[in-house]
Amino acid sequence: MPLLMTSTPDEDYAVRLSPGASFSIPSTAKVLDSVQLAELERTFRTWATESARQDVRASRQRILLIFLLIRHSGAKLNEVLELRFGDIDLEKRVVILAGEDKEKGRTVEIPDDLAEELRTALSQGAHAPDDALFRIDPAHVRRKFYEQAEACGLPRDFGNPSTLRRSRSVELLRGNLPLPVVQRLLGHSTPNLTAAHLEVSEEDVHHAARQYVDRESSRRTSARNIFFGKIVEMNKGDIQSEVILQTLGDLRITSVITNTSLKRMRLKIGTFATAEIKAPWVLIAGSVDAAENSAENRLPGVVMAVNAGKVNVEVLVRLSEGTEICAVVTATGFHRLKLKVNDPVWTLFGAYSVILNRE
Predict the structure, then answer these.
(1) What is the pLDDT, as a whole number, of residue 214?
(2) Among 107, 157, 159, 246, which residue is least crowded by beta carbons within 10 Å?
(3) Most confident region among 129-138, 193-202, 204-213, 227-236 by mean pLDDT
(4) DSSP code string of 78-142
(5) For residue 312, what are the β-bridge partners?
(6) Tens digits of per-residue pLDDT, 87-140?
(7) Which range scores top for mean pLDDT: 111-125, 197-211, 215-229?
(8) Measured between alpha carbons, how far is residue 278 from residues 121, 161, 225, 227, 356 in Å?
(9) Burial level of 291, CB count in 10 A (0-12/13-18/19+)?
(10) Where are the alpha helices (DSSP H) in the chain?
C-alpha cells in the first residue's frame, strides 16, 4: 500500500525531551516516521525473499541487513560497510561503529530481533574477528535502497541512507530519548547549545538506549491487545469522532471517542498513539462468519492457544502480521464454533471498545 509522504515529524515540528529542551525540524527536511519505516522494512523483506535463486536471495539478504542496521542504529552507510565480525556482540546486543577510524568507535544498542538475524547470518561458516561482514559496493547499496523506496510508494531519495539516519534520530528524539544520548549514539562530535549544559555518562547512554530499544521492540511485536501506530484518518461528528490508527504491522484500527477527549488528548492526523482492547470485548468468528457483522474492526488470524474453563474460554489468536490478540468468550459460545489450535478465525471488536492513549 503506498505510503503518505511526510517531510516533517508529526508534532508541530517539536517534541519535548526534558525540562527546557526541545528539537525542531526544518519544513524541508526529509524524514520518515515509524509507520513509514516499518512499511519500508516490509518492502525490503518481501524483495529479499521473492527470488527463486538462492544466490540472489543471499545477496539481497545482505542488503536487507545493511538497511536494518542503518534503520535501527542510525549508522552511516560507510560505518556499516566497514563492520567486521568482531564488531558485533550478540550477547550484549550491540554493534561497534566507527567506519575506517576504529580508534573512534562507538557502541550502539540493537533490537533483539535484529541481533537474532545477525546471529543467523554469522552462523554461516567460520569467521575471524577481523573478517569484513559486508563486501559490497556502496553505489550498489544506494541503488537498491532507492529502488525499494520507490517500490514502497516513496520518492527514491527517501531511501537515501542519510535520510534513514536522520529519520532514526528524529524517531529517538520523539521517543523522549535525551538529546545528548541521541547525539552520542549517532556519533555527533559537537553537541549543540541546547544540550551543552547536560552531562551524560557512558553508562547512562547505554542504559537509556537499551530501555528505548527494548520498549521499541515490544511495540513491534505488540503486547496482547495493544497496538501502536499513527493516526491516519479522522471523521469528526457533532459529539464524537471516528479515529483510524495505522499500526506498524499495517493494520487499521478504528476507534470512536468523544470530541472532548479528542481535544483534551490533542489528537490529530500524524499523532502516534496506542489502541487497547480488553479481552472480553473481543469476539471470535469462524473463517467464513465475519462478513455479516457490524463490528468496525475485523482482523483475520489463527488460533494459537486455548485455555478452557467451566464458564469462560481464553483464546489467543495470532493476527496475519504476527501480533497477538486475546479474547475471553463463554464456554458455550466457544464450543459452538468447534475451534481448535491452528484453525483460521476472525477477531471482531467494535470501535467503541477501543481505548486510545496518546504516546
Answers:
(1) 67
(2) 157
(3) 227-236
(4) HHHHT-BGGGEETTTTEEEE-TT-GGG-EEEE--HHHHHHHHHHHTSS---TTSBS----HHHHH
(5) 330
(6) 999 898 899 887 566 666 788 888 888 999 999 888 876 677 788 888 899 999
(7) 111-125
(8) 39, 40, 7, 12, 12
(9) exposed
(10) 34-49, 54-73, 77-81, 112-122, 138-151, 161-174, 179-186, 202-221, 259-265, 331-337
Please report, as a single letter, which amino acid is at residue 66.
Answer: I
Which amino acid would we find at residue 24? S
CA distance 325 to 280: 11
pTM: 0.71
Beta-strand ranges (E) seen in 207-339 are 226-236, 240-247, 252-258, 272-276, 283-286, 297-308, 312-319, 324-330
C-alpha grid cell, residue 124: 554461516
User: Could you tell me which of 71, 27, 58 has the C-alpha nearest to residue 248?
Assistant: 71
Q: What pLDDT digit, counting tens, does each position of 63-83 carry?
A: 999 999 999 999 999 999 999
Grid cell digits, residue 268: 490529530
Query: What contacts 24+ positions apart, CB below 8 Å, involve 191-199?
Result: 194/21, 194/22, 194/23, 195/21, 198/18, 198/21
Full set of structural domains in the chain with CATH? 14-221 (1.10.443.10), 226-358 (2.40.50.100)
Amino acid at 323: T
What are the distances in angstroms from CA 18 to CA 166, 176, 195?
20, 8, 10
What's the pLDDT at 43? 94
